[in-house]
Design a protein that fits this description.
The complex is a heterodimer of chains A (about 260) and B (about 300). By secondary structure, chain A is mainly β. Chain A is built from 3 helices and 16 strands. Chain A is globular. The chains are: A mainly beta (about 260), B alpha/beta (about 300). Chains A and B meet through helix 1, strand 5, strand 8, strand 9 and strand 14 of A and helix 4, helix 7 and helix 8 of B.
């Protein structure tokens, strides 16, 4: 992509994020003392019924989110997993309890172990963020964290407002153990307002990402509007990831498949 | 001054600012050059008491009228500034200029409504104010008059696309609109009579610069600022200075380290958390409010540079 295109893209960057200098004032205290318990109870019942859920230690799975987000519309989130052959993780769901669409992503790991995933998410207000792992033997394990933020879902579009829609970039590290996938897409949340017209911007997002490594599927992710614009995934393994990498991302509106392999732009 | 000394000096400075804030020293105002009046904001974060008074704001007096430059982060500060104008001149306020959209520079605008001035800003400021209004009301409503309403958020009625000269009567102000840098609507004000450049947030001193536009664009703008003939610079944050070229150096050094560091982290496939921890870390002792601003900058610059 050309420098010019990047500049156009940056020129559209929001002044707004008055987020800019620091996190906005913390939400009312009662929100802090009465966390998102009820929201989570509904979600838990919907997705997991009355199945028993363990709270594993950090060595098995960890979820890292900043207590004060540097940017509500692009909050860094990290998942780390142990490479445990006996209790292999086959699916991980990420929830942000108090977001308008709490299910952030569902990761399926069909084969090779992944040890770390980084992504950027929208956080709408003070909330619990949770990762629930489902192991191959049917167990459920949870990790959670708190994030103070506000306005992440309604923050106006910025960096993605220009650029080539659906452009996909794949960038493996030198040792092939980690992989950066970037997709040019506004990932419009449906809660943003077009500052020119004052009209709501309809939801328009990447609904699914498949990453193939060599002959196998490395991961399948169902994604939604809580993923930040220009969705970016960083995937790490404790062993070299098979090449070539092929990424296939699906557009929620057009059902178009945006694809790229490493080496291609 | 060595790193350790400057660290101590910064801490001392931070302490002094806090003590001053606690003592309620009132509205400081200086006249560093004839007719140039500056109120120094405090170096505080945006989520603590006193957050409405963190930007440098002020006014320039001509023979015919007064131009106000930025109005502070609340109606209270806006009114203090209006009162300060009245103490020094009976001339009318004909212009209220906003250097960009950020809350600490614009929320006092409505305190000047009754002067019926022309509100002046970057051509992109109109849209920036529109998209920020909801955010301002939701999170900074307490800094407006009660009840907070959109009528207190005042966008420009006169915009600057490239350059614009305003006449205050025997005193010409040269306004210049910049490409995306600190924000997407940065505007500088140059007073030819005294050689004073009001930089807005294109120049931060002591307080860590916040990147809300484009780090690459900002570095280019700094090169241009360095070429301008300026005798006195009023930064958006931090002390006024006559050593303008030297004042640009720390900010440029940080922005360069930020750019190079993020680029390096991206090329080595490192995580955002790793980048937040390591990028430009050597610059930390030189700046205030690092922990509340630097992570934001790293995340912003990652998004700017990941498509290079």
């Amino acid at each position: 992509m050309s420098i010019r295109a990047i500049q156009v893209c940056i020129a559209a960057a929001s002044c707004l994020a008055a987020v800019l200098l620091a996190a906005p004032p913390v939400q009312a205290l009662e929100e802090a003392t009465q966390p998102s318990g009820s929201a989570w109870q509904l979600l838990r019942t919907k997705y997991y019924g009355d199945r028993i859920m363990g709270e594993v230690d950090e060595a098995y799975m960890s979820l890292e989110v900043p207590a004060n987000t540097p940017d509500p519309a692009a909050t860094p989130l990290t998942l780390r997993f142990a490479d445990d052959d006996h209790r292999r993780i086959k699916r991980v769901r990420v929830f942000i309890d108090n977001n308008p669409s709490p299910l952030v992503a569902t990761f399926d790991f069909p084969s090779a172990p992944v040890t770390e995933i980084n992504m950027r998410v929208r956080v709408d207000r003070f909330t619990s963020v949770r990762a629930i792992a489902e192991t191959a033997d049917g167990g459920l394990e949870m990790r959670s964290g708190w994030v103070k933020a506000s306005g992440g879902c309604s923050a106006p579009p910025s960096a993605a407002a220009a650029g080539v829609l659906g452009e996909v970039r794949v960038r493996p590290s030198a040792d092939s153990k980690s992989l950066q996938v970037a997709i040019r897409h506004p990932n419009a949340s449906g809660f943003q307002i077009d500052p020119r017209s004052g009209d709501p911007i309809p939801a328009h997002y990447i609904s699914h990402i498949r990453v193939n490594a060599g002959p196998n599927v490395l991961l399948d992710v169902d994604t939604g509007i809580s993923i930040s614009e220009n969705p970016a995934l960083r995937i790490t393994s404790d062993r070299p990831i098979a090449m070539p990498i092929r990424v296939d991302a699906v557009d929620s509106e057009t059902q178009a498949h945006y694809t790229a392999s490493n080496g291609s732009r | 001054m060595g790193a350790a000394e400057s660290r101590i000096a910064l801490r001392l400075f931070a302490c002094l600012m806090v003590c001053a804030a606690n003592a309620g020293y009132g509205f400081n105002l200086s006249e560093p050059s004839p007719g140039i009046f500056v109120h120094r904001g405090r170096q505080l974060a945006l989520d603590v008491p006193g957050h409405d008074d963190i930007a440098n704001i002020g006014f320039i007096v001509g023979r015919k009228c007064v131009a106000v430059i930025d109005t502070g982060g609340s109606m209270r500060i806006g009114r203090e500034l209006r009162a300060a104008v009245a103490q020094h001149t009976a001339l009318p306020v004909c212009y209220v200029i906003n250097t960009h959209v950020h809350v600490d520079h614009v929320l006092g605008n409505a305190a000047f409504k009754s002067d019926q001035p022309s509100f002046v800003g970057h051509t992109a400021l109109t849209q920036a104010m529109a998209r920020s209004t909801e955010f301002f009301l939701a999170h900074y409503g307490g800094d407006l008059d009660s009840p907070p309403g959109a009528d207190q958020i005042i966008a420009p009625d006169r915009v600057v696309e490239n350059e614009l000269t305003l006449d205050l009567g025997g005193r010409q102000l040269a306004l210049r609109a910049w490409p995306t840098a600190h924000s997407d609507c940065d505007l500088t004000v140059y007073d030819g009579q005294t050689g004073t450049l009001w930089t807005g947030d294109l120049l931060f001193r002591e307080r860590l610069p916040a990147v809300d536009g484009s780090v690459k664009g900002w570095l280019k703008v700094l090169d241009e600022l360095a070429r301008m003939r300026v005798r006195l610079a009023v930064p958006g944050h931090g002390p006024i200075t006559r050593a303008v070229a030297a004042a640009l150096v720390p900010e440029r050094r940080y922005l360069q380290a930020l750019t190079a560091g993020v680029r390096d982290e991206l090329s080595r496939g490192k995580s955002p958390q790793d980048a937040i921890e390591h990028v430009a870390a050597a610059q930390k002792p030189h700046w205030l409010l690092w922990d509340s601003v630097h992570p934001h900058n790293v995340m912003r610059v990652i998004q700017e540079l990941e498509w290079e």
